[in-house]
Specification:
This protein is mainly α. The protein is 55% helix and 4% strand. A two-stranded antiparallel sheet has the order 1-2.
Length: 139
């Protein structure tokens, strides 16, 4: 049962629980994100990705093709989007970008799983070569 707090000048709530079991019953705060938060994060990631992609395409189209892993047609389309079009595309509920490291070998090379720091540079170079080869296959 809740009882009024005796101090009328307290900046805390006017009612305080008399014991742990008498606390108000509210929905437990979940540490996981709710659907609205997830969708907002997806929209923000999409907009950031589109803005980055567009600036890469406009600065150096060949580098953008390699770094983004997209076709020339897609790069041209991204480069020509207006801000309103980017906002409209970004508000979807699906991420526009995706991981390009979709096998264990590349992940192990990038995370340097099970290797010393001395091989870090070589592992990253090897992973970059593998991903570059996949970009050429896709183009």
């Amino acid at each position: 049962m809740l009882q009024p707090i005796s101090d009328p000048y307290s900046s805390f709530h006017r009612l305080a629980p008399t014991s742990y079991h008498d606390e108000p019953k509210t929905k437990p705060r979940s540490r996981t994100m709710n659907t609205d938060q997830i969708l907002a994060e997806i929209r923000e990631a999409n907009l950031s990705y589109l803005m980055l992609a567009q600036s890469l395409v406009r600065a150096d189209k060949e580098q953008a093709l390699f770094r983004l892993g997209v076709s020339e047609e897609t790069a041209a389309l991204i480069g020509s989007l207006t801000p309103a079009q980017m906002m409209k595309v970004a508000t979807g509920n699906t991420l526009l970008c995706r991981f390009r490291m979709d096998d264990d070998m590349v992940w192990n090379l990038l995370t340097n799983h099970g290797k010393g720091a001395a091989n870090d540079g070589m592992s990253r170079l090897h992973a970059s070569i593998l991903m570059a080869g996949r970009h050429q296959e896709a183009a």
